[in-house]
């Protein structure tokens, strides 16, 4: 690993337990309003290529969810974890690709759990060096950071460690999907992000995806969150209900 990879690509180890991590930070004030305009998406050649890929491979509700996770996550980082200095590009790539394994085509093309298959897809897509992408390939360390974060974004552990970029992806996805950690993001930020990237009945879409994977792969990692309990949490997301 290159000497600066830990800083640039988010390999800093942090507590895997969200409860432990959030209990260890003491913000001096309540979460501030941070607008979408204050957390712009990266405009690097790599970010543009992967954004185009995501737009062409993800259903619109899933793509919008991915962008909400990006903006919510950066709002959380600014408020709670200012020492996490990995690049916005790395986090953006992880957000765009974190549910790539959950599309219908990808769910039905492998026996792997969707997060694991998604991580493999991301690793390959990010490092592509075809004629059209040879100048926009991610460094291997960055691609591996994104893949690791995707593989573990539903790995809700109570012990151990996870990368900083992986933890932020996990916090923001659970926040958007279930409304957990409501105190971490200002209500006006939720409203602004949801206005720019409408939910389009996301809770029902995602709950259906959970049930679809559990039907196809009763061994899937998603079952560790509760075969009935997890989709019920998603459908019972009161924080996001006004924006459904």
From TrEMBL:
The lineage of its organism: Eukaryota, Fungi, Dikarya, Ascomycota, Pezizomycotina. This is HD domain-containing protein. NCBIfam families: cyanamide_fam. Pfam families: HD. CDD domains: HDc. Residues 62-178 form the HD domain. InterPro entries: Cyanamide_hydratase_HD (IPR017771), HD/PDEase_dom (IPR003607), HD_domain (IPR006674). Gene3D superfamilies: Hypothetical protein af1432.
């Amino acid at each position: 690993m290159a000497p600066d990879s830990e800083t640039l690509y988010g390999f800093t180890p942090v507590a895997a337990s969200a409860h432990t991590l959030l209990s260890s930070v003491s913000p001096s004030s309540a979460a501030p309003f941070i607008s979408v305009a204050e957390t712009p998406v990266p405009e690097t050649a790599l970010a543009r290529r992967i954004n185009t890929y995501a737009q062409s491979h993800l259903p619109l509700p899933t793509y919008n969810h991915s962008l909400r996770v990006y903006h919510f996550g950066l709002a959380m980082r600014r408020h709670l974890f200012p020492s996490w200095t990995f690049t916005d590009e790395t986090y953006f790539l992880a957000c765009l690709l974190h549910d790539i394994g959950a599309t219908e085509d990808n769910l039905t093309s492998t026996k792997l759990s969707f997060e694991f298959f998604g991580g493999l897809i991301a690793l390959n897509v990010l490092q592509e060096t075809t004629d059209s992408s040879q100048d926009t390939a991610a460094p291997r360390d960055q691609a591996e950071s994104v893949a690791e974060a995707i593989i573990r974004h539903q790995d809700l552990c109570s012990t151990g460690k996870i990368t900083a970029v992986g933890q932020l992806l996990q916090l923001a996805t659970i926040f958007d999907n279930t409304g957990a950690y409501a105190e971490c993001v200002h209500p006006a930020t939720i409203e602004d992000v949801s206005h720019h990237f409408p939910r389009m009945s996301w809770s029902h879409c995602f709950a259906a995806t959970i049930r679809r994977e559990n039907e196809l792969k009763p061994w899937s990692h998603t079952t560790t969150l509760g075969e009935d309990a997890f989709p019920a949490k998603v459908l019972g997301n009161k924080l996001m209900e006004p924006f459904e």
